[in-house]
Write a structure and sequence with these properties.
Blueprint (H helix, E strand, L loop, with lengths): L4 E6 L7 E7 L6 E8 L3 E5 L3 E6 L2 E6 L8 E4 L12 E3 L3 E14 L6 E16 L2 E7 L3 E7 L5 E8 L2 E6 L3 E6 L10 E6 L2
Antiparallel strand pairs: 1-2, 2-3, 4-5, 5-6, 6-7, 8-9, 9-10, 10-11, 11-12, 12-13, 14-15, 15-16
Amino acid sequence: VDGTHVYVTAEGSTDGTGAVLMITKSDGTNFEVVAGNRNLPSGVAVDDQRVFWVDEGGIFSCPLATAGCAPTKVAEPIETSSGDDAMMLVDPSWVYWNYRGGVGRAPKTVGASESLVNATGKTSGLAIGAGFLYFTVDEDLGSIRRVALDGSSQDTLVDNIDEPRGTALDGAAVYWVTSPSEATGAEGSVMKAQLP
């Protein structure tokens, strides 16, 4: 979201039928194509100048509020996620995205991608706060974890969670949602843990 638009992806397929769209916030009816002919675009993030997304061809960006842009390739991704599990976010220097087994990052100004997190399960729920990237890992039982933005340390904050999704921070705690579990019969809920 920027001052005037909401940015979304229309996933399409691997035949170039996907697109990155901008929708006018004031009435939600004016759709414009930012970048068309994309292969499975997903995971939109916006900073004060550009919209970023990941697709099968890499990590790309376009200037905000620009229809029909020629995308800039920011980086080759380590790996990508598509669909509902795709997450992406930006900070002043980096663009981050999740993939099965980790979280990658690349400089926003074009450069080589690198793995910030390696995990055995599916990562999602990215959030940044106080020098850390927070994320969920969904294995047999999931966890809420964080890694220092310089990659120097990784901690598990909460373990043994049924299907954690999403994270949010408020400075004192990390919040996440659990999905209903067919295996245990548990209902979905919003959970919270104090930050260390």
